[in-house]
Amino acid sequence: MKKISEAPFVKEMCAVTANMYRLGWDERNGGNISLLLDENEVAEYLDPDNVIRTIPTGFNAKELIGKSFIVTGTGKYFKNVETDPENNLGIIRIAKDGTTAELLWGYSDGGKFTSELPAHLMSHISRLSVDPQNRVIIHSHPTNTLAMNYVHELDERKFTHTLWEMCTECIVVFPDGIGILPWMLCGTNSIGEATAQKMKEFRLVVWGMHGIYGAGKNLDEAFGLIETVEKAAQIFMLTAHLPRVNTIKDEELKELAEFFGVKYRKDFLDL
Predict the structure, then answer these.
(1) How far is Cα 256 from Cα 242, in angstroms, rounded to an integer?
(2) For position 180, what pLDDT does the model report?
(3) Which residue stretches of the chain have pLDDT < 70?
(4) Residues 183, 185, 188, CA angle at the centre, nearest 5°?
(5) What is the pLDDT, as a whole number, of residue 1?
């Protein structure tokens, strides 16, 4: 059996968490990631019959029974994942009852998965129902995206439109726009349910005055979505107090989307 430390999904999680911490998106233990794993790939590194312990999830994820995920741990700092993945990450499998996670590897200090796991699982269920290739959920606190929450209307159409205007690539990268939730108490099933509902329509969901959720086919795609939003938000924050001399017009946004063949939210233009 191969060494789990050499598994591509472990190495990717280490690289992504280190990068997100370096960028200032995940201070302290802020933020969390879950990646749906391929069963055959996991079997190359772990014995699927060797369950270390079981942990209640606080949510009935019956649609995900038998599925395995690598998930960041609760209270864990992203800066430490790269040097100690076995303590800061865990590989879990949703048990037959749907409400229990079977720990196959990780959380070596006796810890467990992020407190936002129910929200992640709910979002996985939603995204898989829309696109079976979506395997990643990332929650993060990007600085400029969060700052923009305080000075821009939290209206999905207006928020998305503003970001599309900031960078030529935006409407191409997230043509489906951005969903927005008002401030809600984090760590609850209520915010998880609200996020999952938005995830049926959007791959990106802003948690008002808190952060953002992003979904994708792999870690690169989910990270890249958030990265693009954050760059656009940074440009907005750098220019919001200045007179706007130039902008990307709606006609040009349409031209972009049509040239690159993306299905964009037409109702998010011509506001």
Answers:
(1) 26
(2) 98
(3) none
(4) 135
(5) 83
Contact status, residue 179 vs residue 204, Cβ threshold 8 Å: yes
* Same domain for 104 and 4: yes
Domain final residue, candidates 82, 114, 146: 114
Is 110 in the same domain as 122?
no
pLDDT tens-place string over residues 206-234: 999 999 999 999 999 999 999 999 999 99
State whether 144 and 71 are in the same domain: no
| Six token digits for residue 153 | 């209307």
Task: Round to whole Å and give the CA distance between 110 and 53.
Answer: 10
CA-to-CA dists, residue 142 to 25, 73, 135, 171, 196, angstroms: 4, 19, 21, 19, 20
Instruction: Read off the tokens for 61.
Output: 């994820």
What is the CATH classification number for the domain harbouring 218?
Answer: 3.40.225.10
The set of catalytic residues is 116
pTM > 0.85: yes or no: yes
Which domain does 240 fall in, by range? 116-271
Here the tokens at position 242 are 């200045």
Predicted local distance difference test score (pLDDT) of residue 187: 87
